[in-house]
Write a structure and sequence with these properties.
Elements lengths: L5 E3 L4 H9 L8 E3 L14 H17 L6 E10 L2 E3 L5 H11 L3 E12 L2 E13 L4 H9 L20 E5 L2 H5 L3 H10 L7
Parallel strand pairs: 1-2, 1-3
Antiparallel strand pairs: 3-4, 3-5, 5-6, 6-7
Helix pairs in contact: 3-4
The chain binds thymidine-5'-triphosphate.
Thymidine-5'-triphosphate binds next to helix 1, strand 3 and helix 5.
Length: 195
């Protein structure tokens, strides 16, 4: 019988790593079950509503086949009211980096956790300040392979740290899961980190 404490409805290796970093055993405590949902924003949907809707959809879909508390999350990069998803091509990635270069933007991450208390949610917005990125740096960054599966086409936990002057808010939320807020929700659902 599985002794897992939590189902993670996510294909993101970052979310699993983040949960491991606060004391979960990735193999024993977490059952990973990615769910496939349509991530297209609705017409006129605000970025705040968008990330919350997707986190709820992931948690709900993941919870259908388990009695374990189930976590779904979504991260979006938002600049000038535009939601930047994951780049679909080199040009798309370079366009995104050009938009982000030399200014600040917001990263919104929503988390939904189902469990005995029903569906609990939280949303964290973090401001990320990027320096100007030269065209040759953007090209080299794309060639590194890092932007591919990242919202906004960059990874703060990787080489994009070279471009990021500072962050106001939650660093872990930018990587994919706001750990402080997530641990509070988990505790409310009866998932304790201190065993
Ligand atoms: C901005 C940023 C995003 N990301 C990643 C986190 C997420 O994995 C991804 C945002 O896409 P999401 O759609 O939130 O997540 P996902 O598709 O990877 O996984 P799932 O939907 O199955 O949970 O971008 C970083 O790793 N570093 C960063 O600095």
């Amino acid at each position: 019988m599985s002794s897992a404490l939590l189902r993670l409805a996510s294909a993101s290796p970052r979310r699993l790593e983040l949960l491991s970093s606060i004391g979960f055993d990735a193999e024993r405590d977490i059952e990973v079950m990615p769910v496939d949902i349509d991530e297209t924003p609705h017409e006129g949907e605000s970025p705040e509503a968008y990330v919350l809707r997707l986190a709820l959809a992931k948690a709900s879909a993941g919870a259908e086949t388990t009695t374990l508390p189930t976590l779904g999350s979504d991260t979006a990069v938002v600049v000038a009211d535009r939601i930047l998803g994951k780049p679909t091509s080199r040009d798309h990635a370079l366009d995104m980096l050009s938009l982000l270069s030399g200014r600040s933007h917001e990263v919104m991450t929503a988390v939904a956790i189902s469990g005995p208390e029903g569906l609990l949610t939280t949303r964290v917005t973090t401001r990320v300040f990027m320096r100007h990125i030269e065209a040759h740096e953007m090209a080299a960054y794309w060639a590194s392979g890092e932007p591919v599966d990242k919202a906004g086409g960059y990874a703060i936990q990787g080489r994009a740290a070279l471009f990021i002057e500072r962050v106001e808010g939650s660093h872990s939320a930018v990587v994919g899961l706001p750990l402080f807020e997530t641990a509070k929700l988990l505790a409310r659902q009866g998932v304790s980190l201190w065993r």
